[in-house]
DNA sequence: TCTCGAAATGGGAACGTTCCCATGACGAAT
DNA sequence: ATTCGTCATGGGAACGTTCCCATTTCGAGA
């Protein structure tokens, strides 16, 4: 392989191998079987000699596969998003695809723009983990033949595959665990579920489950920067002697972080007040008794998303898929009540 | 603007406006001034009507600007990398560019592959935050006219711009702070600095500074998963009555995390043992007395990297730039020694 | 009035592919 | 021997741009 100043083209390879560009193209477009053995050898040798790699630009301009998968993410600084991104990236690599990540910073306008951009780059598939997503933009992808997968979201009015946490199972596991540990006064804290269907699903399950089981449950639905709201409810939760033990269930990692911060500020002891959060985070083992979490299998989720894309690529009219993954309980001190006396 | 099933082409706009495609091309390639006022209006109107956006694929195939900036990152799960990524992304957006992020997962082979991929997508600039980077691959970018910026790394044998933390200032700030707080027996913990120049720079500065000042300083250079090495040194550090107060300086966020974990496991109290880390992390305010950190201005660093790229784009032979940013001290309990008696 | 240069505009090739449609060869069936 | 289908291969157009090189127009200077 010679290091050329300009990348080699298919024509150079064809010339060197003494074959037509069409044959070289076939060699690289998964039609090798159609070529005779000698031809394959000649092409392979020539390509190696000049260090040829097909130009994805030209390829996808012509309408061929771009080898590009897009990911639209609402908040790139959310550790969950990063974890998923990592999973996607791995899965893409394994499938010979490249991931193009677009962060919308929670701005619907940007979302639109990013979608347009990805579309103009002719991505072969799109993974969406964002809120304000105007459905018609997504539908445009679908009708143009680009598979779309919704990640940790669901949209009633657009028919696409969905992958994410099994929210019902997660909430059930959390509640079961809390109850088993002796907590019976539950506070569920979530960000406003407006656009985010998974927040809605978790919240709904929490409500119905607690109602069904007759648990003493309350809900706090707040923006995380609203420290007052948080503080007020946390204070109100402080345990009363000879009263049911209180516990907090955090709807996601961001909530867990905010709650941990305020509990520390208010000098509330977790354990005494139970604390469990959905999403595992680097530092959950670090705070004093450690925070119990439900870890999402993010790599598996990413892999599943790519699987969905590829399946649908090969069969555009495949059945709509919903893939929900169960979380894993990581038990730490925050759900270990102090020995009663 | 009509929603067309297939995106509009320059030809359709030209036709509709009754002008040549060349003129439309000029309109979109920053040569508007060369067009008469009437022509500009006609094109603008026609483009709006059919919802035209130039196709970046075709554009960059022909050799025009792709509007794509590549980022090669060694570990996408490192919060520092994510923070930088966010900064880059913002800066790109502002400049009308798109960011293509490639994660190499610390695998040199993948690095090569990712670089090749980005090159084949004709990125206009490359930001590198990775270790095993074979210099010749980078040089190839440079010679082909693609500006490269090294982020938090430096390479002796390839002439490119570099942006990152002012390592000297950071180490000095950390040491000064520790000394001012009454710590004088210092342990510097870092991952092996082999390929990473910033690790080398920090380590070197720590050594020379401590030597110059006659401080009782030791160094632990270890892989973070080597729990034994860590534990041993941490135990050895335990404070001795009527002896100089010990403190730990963590070379980066990953180290801080690992050290915090082991300190907790060994029941070592930070504060008593001083603890300061380079890189601010979400949870540093959460652990018991809080961990003092030096926060890097990641958004500014990202912005600076893009600035470098653009400068060099316009003047390929501009002077090589080194831009180093000072960190900000965020003081918490871990560098607050308990009141002495 | 003629010439000339600048300014405004357009035509066509090229970028590196893919894919449709030949073309020739060859063995099998008539 | 002739016809046919199949297989291996090649030529050329097309994808949507940009850019080089005309061509046309027009006002100014001779």
From TrEMBL, chains A, B:
Matching entries from Pfam families are given as: LacI, Peripla_BP_1
Concerning SMART domains, the annotation shows:
HTH_LACI
Q: Write out the coiled-coil annotation as residue ranges.
A: none
Superkingdom of origin organism: Bacteria
What range does the record give for the signal peptide?
none
Question: Which keywords are on file for this protein?
Answer: DNA-binding, Transcription, Transcription regulation
Query: Where do the HTH lacI-type domain residues begin and end?
Result: 8-63
Tell me the InterPro entries matching this sequence: HTH_LacI (IPR000843), Lambda_DNA-bd_dom_sf (IPR010982), Peripla_BP/Lac1_sug-bd_dom (IPR001761), Peripla_BP_I (IPR028082)
**A molecular function GO annotation:** DNA-binding transcription factor activity
The record ties this protein, via PANTHER family, to: LACI-RELATED TRANSCRIPTIONAL REPRESSOR (PTHR30146), RIBOSE OPERON REPRESSOR (PTHR30146:SF145)
Record protein name field: Transcriptional regulator
The record lists the organism as Halomonas cupida
Q: Lineage of the native species?
A: Bacteria, Pseudomonadati, Pseudomonadota, Gammaproteobacteria, Oceanospirillales
Q: Which gene encodes it?
A: ptxS
């Amino acid at each position: 392989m010679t290091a050329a100043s300009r990348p080699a083209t298919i024509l150079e390879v064809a010339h060197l191998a003494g074959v037509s560009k069409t044959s070289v193209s076939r060699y690289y477009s998964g039609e090798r079987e159609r070529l005779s053995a000698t031809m394959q050898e000649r092409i392979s040798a020539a390509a190696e000699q000049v260090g040829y790699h097909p130009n994805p630009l030209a390829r996808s301009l012509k309408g061929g596969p771009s080898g590009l998968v897009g990911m639209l993410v609402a908040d790139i600084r959310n550790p969950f998003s990063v974890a998923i991104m990592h999973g996607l990236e791995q899965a893409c690599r394994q499938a010979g695809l490249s991931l193009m990540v677009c962060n919308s910073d929670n701005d619907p306008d940007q979302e639109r723009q990013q979608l347009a951009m990805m579309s103009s780059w002719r991505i072969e598939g799109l993974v969406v983990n964002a809120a304000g997503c105007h459905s018609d933009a997504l539908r445009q992808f679908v009708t143009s033949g680009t598979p779309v997968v919704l990640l940790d979201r669901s949209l009633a009015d657009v028919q696409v595959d969905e992958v994410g946490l099994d929210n019902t199972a997660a909430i059930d596991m959390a509640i079961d665990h809390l109850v088993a540990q002796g907590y019976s006064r539950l506070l569920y804290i979530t960000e406003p579920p407006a656009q985010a269907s998974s927040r809605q699903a978790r919240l709904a399950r929490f409500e119905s489950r607690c109602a069904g089981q007759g648990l003493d449950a309350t809900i706090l639905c707040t923006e995380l920067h609203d420290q007052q709201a948080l503080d007020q409810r946390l204070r109100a939760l402080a345990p009363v002697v000879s009263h049911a033990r209180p516990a907090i269930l955090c709807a996601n990692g961001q909530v867990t972080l905010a709650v941990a911060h305020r509990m520390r500020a208010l000098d509330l002891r977790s354990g005494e007040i139970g604390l469990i959060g959905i999403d595992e985070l680097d530092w959950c083992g670090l705070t004093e008794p450690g925070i119990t979490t439900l870890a999402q299998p993010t790599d598996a989720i990413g892999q599943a998303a790519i699987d969905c894309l590829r399946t649908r690529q090969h069969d555009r009219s495949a059945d709509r898929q919903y893939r929900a993954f169960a979380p894993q309980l990581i038990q730490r001190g925050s759900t270990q009540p102090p020995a009663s006396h």
